[in-house]
Amino acid sequence: MKNRTFVIALILITTALIGWYIYVSAQANEARSVQEVSVDWWGSAHADTSAEAFTHWNEDDPPEVPVNCAKCHSGDGFIDYLGQDGSTAMAVDAPAAVNSVISCEVCHNEQADLLETASLPSGIEVKLGSGNSLCATCHSGTSSGATVDETAAGFDADEIMAEAGFVNPHYAFAAATWLGAEGEGGYQYDGKTYAARFEHAAGVQSCTECHDPHSLHMREDYESEAANLCAACHSNVSGYTDYREVYVDGIDYDGNGKVEGLYHEIEGMRSVLYRAMQQYSAGQTENAILWADQYPYWYIDTNQDGEVNEGEAEFANQFSGFTPRLMRAAFNFQFSAKDPAGYVHNGQYMLQLLYDSIEDLAAVVDVDMSALVRPD
Ligand code: HEC
Ligand code: HEC
Ligand code: HEC
Ligand code: HEC
Ligand code: HEC
Q1: CB of 201 closer than 6 A to ligand 5?
Q2: How high is the pLDDT of residue 16?
Q3: Which atom of ligand 3 is nearest to 74's Cα?
């Protein structure tokens, strides 16, 4: 009996020692040297001195990033926003330097360490803890569904707003997608409920759990063959190109007769919305609408053939004459188009927004929605 207790104790101690060893070596693996981290950072979009995001104002006189853009488009501007330069915190006080990338000290300083919440364009503040609140402060866009309602205030749903320009959610607003109804980033229709923050699964629940904050790639580098971060749970993923093929429930949301990766279901739902918008604009506004992937995105379909032809996607030919109903749809269209990773950030929320925009247009034009599925 004594012997048996001894053996069990020995096994327990050995197991504990092995566990401790694995834990310590894992920690040692994770803690990366400043040098390694710097190499990763140099290769990232945050360090890209030639990017449009950091050089857009270079030809201005004087060349500086305006106050309302500087928080996200200038490293110096973000330091000003944090109050790390001694100025008022949570506000940019002055125009900021151009060519100022997101360098080490932008994220590693006292005020940055203390940042626990992010304020979103909807006006909502969300507590996300340190690290993730940095990401969400710059990656939440510049307008939200509420901006659309402000623009449309006082107009009937199908009344033309001659003066109103397109309300653009902006770019790379992953946090607005990820938070869903919690951040109210998209245009959310009255009387509908929307998916909240995408909880996903243990280990992939926040920006910095998935994205390495320096390389910005997935934690298990997606260019390597392993792509372990996803493969552990989605067995069909063997590399980056497989991400867009992931689906879980096997529902044909866009009604095209095929169950596809969530990325493709969203693309399909957006095509249905696009056709409905073209139909609606041709009948209800003075011009038929077209979308092209260049600012200001919405153009007049001069020959009404539904396609972008030579000369149509020109700044001078931009669409005007939105009605509130068309603006809501255009906002959600763009919201889903400009977060190409919406399928992994919060695919259900994206599908709900697109579906509801289609339904809103279907109150006026004839759209067959019978094959479409709204995630619940
Ligand atoms: C909340 C943060 C934020 C604010 C404020 C902001 N931007 Fe951006 N903007 C971004 C991010 C992030 C991108 C990066 C998109 C990319 O290239 O990946 C971007 C991209 C851009 C681009 C490049 C678009 C493209 O097609 O590559 C332009 C131009 C731009 N912003 C203009 C502006 C202007 C003008 C303002 C001020 C009126 C502004 N932004 C304010 C976050 C912001
Ligand atoms: C966009 C914000 C951001 C920038 C820019 C940035 N870091 Fe980090 N860094 C972080 C975050 C967030 C963590 C915490 C990592 C985690 O959660 O595991 C971190 C962690 C670290 C660590 C700890 C080791 C590790 O990998 O966890 C080191 C060292 C480091 N950063 C150095 C740097 C250096 C040097 C630079 C510039 C070359 C830099 N960082 C730029 C956000 C940033
Ligand atoms: C101070 C603002 C700021 C902060 C903080 C910030 N980013 Fe960025 N991020 C940007 C801008 C601006 C770009 C576009 C840079 C470019 O076009 O080269 C960008 C680009 C990116 C991209 C690449 C997008 C693309 O088009 O390929 C990813 C991914 C990203 N950021 C993730 C993060 C994560 C994760 C964090 C938090 C650890 C973070 N960012 C913090 C401003 C910021
Ligand atoms: C489940 C893991 C996961 C989480 C959580 C996550 N991302 Fe991503 N993100 C991805 C993947 C995967 C891609 C690339 C997808 C693709 O290209 O198809 C991506 C792409 C991006 C891009 C580039 C999109 C573009 O405009 O081209 C940005 C910026 C970004 N993420 C920022 C963030 C921020 C900020 C957060 C936190 C609010 C976040 N991500 C949370 C997995 C994640
Ligand atoms: C720890 C396990 C785990 C990891 C790691 C993981 N996922 Fe998931 N994923 C899930 C689960 C569970 C769901 C279903 C969640 C839900 O519906 O609430 C899911 C859902 C998804 C969805 C939505 C599918 C649908 O049909 O609604 C996509 C897309 C996705 N994951 C992509 C990825 C990508 C890309 C990665 C790697 C960057 C990844 N996942 C990593 C477990 C994981």
Answers
A1: yes
A2: 54
A3: 1
375: three-class secondary structure by DSSP:
coil
Whether residue 331 sits in one domain with residue 264: yes
Q: Is residue 295 part of a domain?
A: no
| Ligand 1 site-directed mutation target among 48, 57, 69, most atoms within 8 Å of CB | 69
327 within some domain: yes
Alpha helices in 184-261 (DSSP H): 207-210, 228-231
Cα(236) to ligand 1 centroid in Å equals 35
> If pLDDT is split at 50, 70 and 90, which confidence band does 18 have?
very low
Tens of pLDDT, residue by residue over 90-115, are: 999 999 999 999 999 999 999 999 99
Q: Within this chain, do residues 57 and 201 fall inside the same structural domain, yes or no?
A: no
Q: Which atom of ligand 4 is nearest to the CA of 263?
A: 18
pTM here is 0.94
pLDDT of residue 371: 98
Please give the distance, rounded to the nearest whole angstrom, from the Cα atom of residue 247 to the centre of ligand 1. 31
Q: Whose CA is nearest to atom 3 of ligand 2?
A: 107
Residue 162 lies in a domain: yes
Give the structural domain span for 104. 45-114
The answer as to whether 239 is a domain residue is no
Cβ proximity of 247 and 267 under 8 Å: no
Of 97, 107, 31, 19, nearest to 58 (Cα)? 97
Instruction: Name which of 254, 226, 253, 255 is nearest 242 in CA terms.
Output: 226
